[in-house]
Amino acid sequence: MSNNKRSRGPAAGDPTPEEHSSAQRALDILDRLERAYPDHKPLLNYRNPYELLIAVILSAQTTDAQVNLVTPALFAAFPDPCSLARAEQSTVEELIHSTGFFRAKARNVRAAARLLCEQFNSEVPDSMKALVSLPGVGRKTANVLRGALYGLPAVIVDTHFARVTRRLGLAAASTADGVEREIAALIPPQRQYSFSMRLNYHGRYRCHARRPDCAGCEVRLLCPYPGGMNNAEAEDPVTKQSRVD
Ligand code: SF4
Fold first, then answer.
1. Are both 142 and 166 inside the same structural domain?
2. How far is 91 from 99, CA to CA, in rounded Å?
3. Model confidence over 122-158: pLDDT tens digits?
4. In this structure, is residue 171 part of a structural domain?
5. Does residue 216 belong to any structural domain of this protein?
């Protein structure tokens, strides 16, 4: 038997050098964002899975703060899926009116509640297939629920996440599903939810759509955006050095 250890050549499915360096950079970015944003709970208020499901459906096209204003009265009136399933459309519309698109949202939350009540024993399911069968629930909402409620792998592609991952050069796809696949290939499953939440915060608080605050950005020297590492003036706002340690 030979003692020579032969190194294995690249196999199908192995990352290319470019993919490998993107994956390492993505993890370095995540390390820094975990320090910048230590808490990564959803900004929507909820006390149980049912409430988070309804709150996330209501959050489409509006702010989490706006949803948090209407959900206390909604959940006081309809504290579980079966009670919301029996609610009058007009009553729900009135309660959620200020979140916008209130007719469609009222229809969706009532129909989702009915399915939970009748087919899921009033429990929020954890599988992607079951979640996207609920009215008003697409992959983004399903991933929020899978990550926040069940600790499952979840890449949550919302407007902030898509913008920041593109600026960071980690995603190039033009569709949410494409971005989700690209990021899922870079980030280990157990860290995907953390990555999603931190990137979302970073998009809200630092990497704004119109004027990103590159000078104050914690991941500046890991970012190829014009205000980032390719800016000759760039220094790390955390260490005040011109390279990331
Ligand atoms: S350097 Fe600028 S563009 Fe890059 S992540 Fe930071 S704020 Fe966004």
1. no
2. 14
3. 999 999 999 999 999 999 999 999 999 999 999 999 9
4. yes
5. yes
Give 196-228 pLDDT, tens digit per residue: 999 999 999 999 999 999 999 999 999 999 987
Q: Which domain holds residue 56?
A: 49-150
pLDDT of res. 14: 56
Domain boundary residue, one of 119, 150, 181: 150
Percent of the chain with pLDDT over 70: 89
Ligand 1, CB cutoff 6 Å, lining residues: 164, 167-168, 206-207, 212-214, 217, 219-220, 223, 225, 227-228
177 given a catalytic annotation: no
Q: Name residues whose C-beta falls within 8 Å of residue 21's C-beta, 6 or more positions apart in sequence.
A: none
Which token pair is 232? 């000759």
Q: Which residues contact 1 (CB under 8 A, 6 or more apart)?
A: none
Q: Does 140 participate in catalysis according to the annotation?
A: yes
Least confident of 72-76, 153-157, 234-238: 234-238
Distance CA 206, CA 194 (A): 17
Atom from ligand 1 closest to the CA of residue 223: 4
Distance CA 36, CA 23 (A): 20
Distance, in Å, from the CA atom of 167 to the CA atom of 133, rounded to the nearest integer, reads 33
